From TrEMBL:
GO molecular function, one term: glycosyltransferase activity
Protein name: Phosphoribosyltransferase
UniProt cross-references to CDD domains, sorted A to Z: PRTases_typeI
Phosphoribosyltransferase domain ranges (all copies): 7-182
């Protein structure tokens, strides 16, 4: 059980200590992953940015992912989508792409996207359930040719982790458990992260180096 996202991020930063001083690029998945990535970036002496992906929700349960879409519009679908009408999937894709575009416009007002090519990239989220958004993020980033692609999360079920391990160069997960219903069950406090909090994390300057 993690106290909150800050507690989970501090534990991830300790587990990622081997990358301290190697100028990693921390990419948070909005919204919950971004404040965590800010703390880890500051701990490791890295840079912070976002990777924009959105899950595609099932028509009977919007929180259940049938797949995900990345910023370029590429869709990856889970087996759950096999029996759904193509028209629904297309409409859901457009709905989520509209959210991605709004967020990019908002975040780009603070800083342009940092190039990924040739970088040590660490992708952070507050946990994985189906892993749809993380998989979409990793696949989108792989096409941009990072030097090394790392997934860092506090908690995930083993089957999801296995799928992610096939895409990333390294996966760091603090707690792997099959007793899994939702990410929030592993946090004592799992308050919603809003856009203002994401913008604050992106706006926050890194700490001064020790003298």
């Amino acid at each position: 059980m993690f106290v909150d996202r800050e507690h989970a991020a501090s534990q991830l930063a300790e587990a990622l200590a081997a990358y301290r001083g190697k100028r990693p690029l921390l990419l948070g998945i909005p919204r919950g992953g971004v404040p965590m990535a800010r703390l880890i970036a500051d701990s490791l002496g890295g840079e912070l940015d976002v990777v924009l992906v959105r899950k595609l929700g099932a028509p009977w349960s919007p929180e259940l992912a049938i797949g995900a879409v990345d910023e370029s519009g590429v869709v990856s679908l889970d087996a759950l989508a096999d029996d759904l009408p193509a028209a629904y999937v297309d409409e859901e894709r457009e709905r989520q792409l509209a959210v991605i575009r709004r967020r990019r416009a908002s975040y780009s007002a603070l800083q342009p996207a940092i190039p990924v090519s040739g970088r040590l990239v660490i992708v952070v989220d507050d946990g994985l359930a189906t892993g749809a958004t993380m998989l979409a993020a990793l696949q989108a980033l792989r096409r941009k040719h990072p030097a090394r692609l790392v997934c860092a999360v506090p908690v995930a079920p083993p089957d999801t982790l296995q799928r992610v391990q096939a895409v990333a160069d390294e996966v760091l997960c603090l707690q792997v458990t099959a007793d899994f219903s939702a990410v929030g069950q592993f946090y004592r406090h799992f308050d919603e992260v809003n856009d203002a909090m994401v913008l604050a994390a992106l706006r926050s300057p890194p700490p001064d180096p020790p003298r």
